[in-house]
Amino acid sequence: MSLPNQADEGITFDTFMEGVWRQNPVFVMVLGMCPTLAVTVSAVNGLSMGVATLFVLVSSCLLVSLIRHLVPKEVRIATYIVIIATFVTLVDYLIQAASLALYEALGAFIQLIVVNCIILGRAEAHASKNPPLKAVVNALGMGVGFAIGLLALGGTREILGAGKLFGISLFGEHFQPWVVMVLPPGGFFVLGGWLLLFALFRKKPVTEGGHAHD
Amino acid sequence: MSEPITPQTTPSGKMIATMVLVASICGVLIVGAFESTQAAIAENKRIMVERAVFKVLPGAASVKEYAATPAGIQPLTGAMPEGGIKFYAAYDQAGALKGIAAEAAGKGYADVVRILYGYDAQCQCIIGIGVVSMRETPGIGDKIITDKAFLKNFEALDVRVNAEMTALANAVKVVKHGSKTSPWQIDAIAGATVTSKAVGRGINDSAQKLLPLLVPHIAELKS
Prior knowledge:
Distance between the termini of chain B: 86 Å
Number of domains of chain B: 1
Number of strands of chain B: 9
Largest interface: A-B, 31 and 26 residues
Mean pLDDT of chain A: 84
Structural class of chain A: mainly alpha
Largest sheet of chain A: 2 strands, antiparallel
Strand order of the largest sheet of chain B: 2-1-3-4-5-6-7
Strand content of chain A: under 5%
Distance between the termini of chain A: 11 Å
Shape of chain A: globular
Radius of gyration of chain A: 18 Å
Oligomer: heterodimer
Radius of gyration of chain B: 25 Å
Order of helices and strands of chain A: HHHHHHHEEH
Low-confidence stretches of chain A: 1-7, 207-214
Helix content of chain B: 25-40%
Structural class of chain B: alpha+beta
Number of helices of chain A: 8
Low-confidence stretches of chain B: none
Helix content of chain A: 55-70%
Number of domains of chain A: 1
């Protein structure tokens, strides 16, 4: 696959859509699986984790892009980690201030955003080579893509495993919940289902472009 | 050895300067976030405790934190005194003592089950429980918060202290589903015995320690 030289292009709709669709971090790149599988037991948890990651991603990409000419290449990774850790700490405080129940539900996975490879990957591969606005738009797309992925997983698992969506009961009293779906194995089942669905959807445009290979 | 490859290296001074600059910016950001959210976080924690206490002691309107020590009871301000056990005294609208709430913890199926129980001084019994945190299996262990028959155990669970004020007159005990005979026994949920036992053991451990210290001084709280 030959990626166009991103540094030369201006900001297009594709700068944003890249993360949402063509290189969706959850469904296409299959990155950041640890929070993806662990916290998505409900739609609210999935969405909150997605939004928290989105915030860290956008803020750290902005800062990385702003100081990209300043940072010597030898210490760039160390610098990115410090920046990402800072924004994760910020998110940690903000979630505690917003809702302690949510903070407990997400648990250690908030702090673990630091090692989410989507963020370090974006900082290194995109933000450090592009002007701030473009970096932010691209990071926003990636973050939205990740949040959509987590919401899709969380929603599916909540519907199947608890018969609810966003805490609202869908099927009435007599619904027998498919409990395994909110347990760890269910995370893999649902992720597998979504990956399959996404792969089927993506098949067509690839064939049209003449790159019909697996 | 062959010539080492030396691409243009950056002088150490510049690297250090960059790291110091970035770290300073980050430090300022973190301190700013901490300062601006601290009040809201403290308030959230207070509301969470209040809500939990109000749930196990219906009718309560305000909560005060206390510590029970072998020397007596005292309002909890700052650090916990040595050997102290934390409890909450809840008061109703008129300012009369409504009951006592305390935390209990027992090892469940997946992890420690932490609950809060409400103690009524008049009947010397537990009148309600609420879960603080648990990771029990959804649909099985988490019945302890939904199973009405199980919660009925905690409408008047006998935790009288013995005459010597050293321990409970009758230890709280979890019995097999359907075999409860005495008011200090807890009827386990069928199929969720481990979690039921965690709740019972937790209450027993906590009440055995706290109530002998607390009951002799309970009059001091009634103001």
